[in-house]
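Hey, sorry for the delay on this. The queue was backed up all week. Below are the sequences that define the complex (chains, strands and the ligand SMILES where applicable).
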Amino acid sequence: MMLRLVNLFTKRKILWVTAMLIVTLVLWFFPPSLIIFPRNVTLTWTGVPATSQTITWQTGRYINGSQVEYMELIDNLHSTTGAGSAQQVTTDRGMITVHSVQLTDLKPATRYQYRVGNGFFWSSCHTFTTAPTQPKAFKFLLFGDSQGNSYDLWQRTLQTGYERNHDAAFIMNIGDLVDIGLSYVQWDDWFQAGHGVIDSMTVMTVMGNHETYTKEWKIAQPLLYTALFQLPNNGPATLQGKVYSFDYGDAHFSILDSQLQEEAEWIPEMLPLQQDWLEKDLAGTNKPWKLVFIHRPVYHNRPSNGDEDLRDALTPLFDRYNVDVVFAGHDHVYARSYPLVSGTWTDGTGGGPVYITTGRSGKKTFSRAQAKNWNAMYYNPLEEPNYLTVEVSEYSLLIKAFKLNGEIIDTWDKTAKHVE
Ligand SMILES: [Fe+2]
């Protein structure tokens, strides 16, 4: 009797292991190029946040139609179809199709329901809310490097930040979204981790150096990053999708590309190009708050030297055009500088941007980072990831850094010049 029970148990175990092996093999060998249903639905803006929404998703190579059906959430009778574009993209896992549709002429401050597809195979339904025409105050979520060899911790940080901040208007990621930028498996993991968040709240991204790395740790053009994210095309022509700006409420957002070494082979003039563009961009805005986002920090926390080329080229522009905060990533620490003018710190009354390195939202830590003498606040999130909230109003800017467990790391605020 006992022997029969043991045999039965062993047989079941063998069957279970065999079944799991078959499932694993099927999942491994099933190429993304054969996917029929829309996957990795993501919201970004390429137009005005109050009246437009850009929606991007992926399918296998043989699904060409790109349609979005959408309607106001209160209106269950009418749906409208918006048509977009499809681009075939070669990945290390075969050819996929990246679809994108920009919905325009939407009503401000309105909640819409939508689904994406090709007219035959549709995604499930999601919602988004357009921005108010003149938002007086708003909050956005900011995540540091999410890279890693797995994305479960990025998922927890993103989902936790989102759960605690449903009132946020949008999300930003400071770059090094993935560890291997030319690995479609990692991108798929990154998007899957965002399911339920990035299909409901707009996410605006900054490119990091890891977006240019191959599986052999060589440098390549960041073709997956630029194909998978649709972003405003108001940057220099050769830096489309990497350098851009947009407005939300009383703030102007300028996004830069710090990958001078990695991209030098293809864009040798990228620093002067960005200097010229940033000068025009900052001179051309009348928004009271100016926020800059760049992956590599111009004031670093690495033991080695920082990126002096970036610092020398960009900080005079930040100073001249009264940039309030320069956000960065790359060093995987949370660090806030004193207000700095020409590299000299001030008490803030004389102005000068504050430089904030945003920490890490994913798995990767950097234990060799060090506090520098320009840091007013320094914290290395070795135990658990962190995220930031940035609250912008006509009168003030309020930045808070949180550990994943909700504990506060830092709070910093600045009062608008006209109410001082
Ligand atoms: Fe980096």
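The chain has three domains: 2-30, 33-129, 137-419.

I'll add it to the shared folder too.

S.
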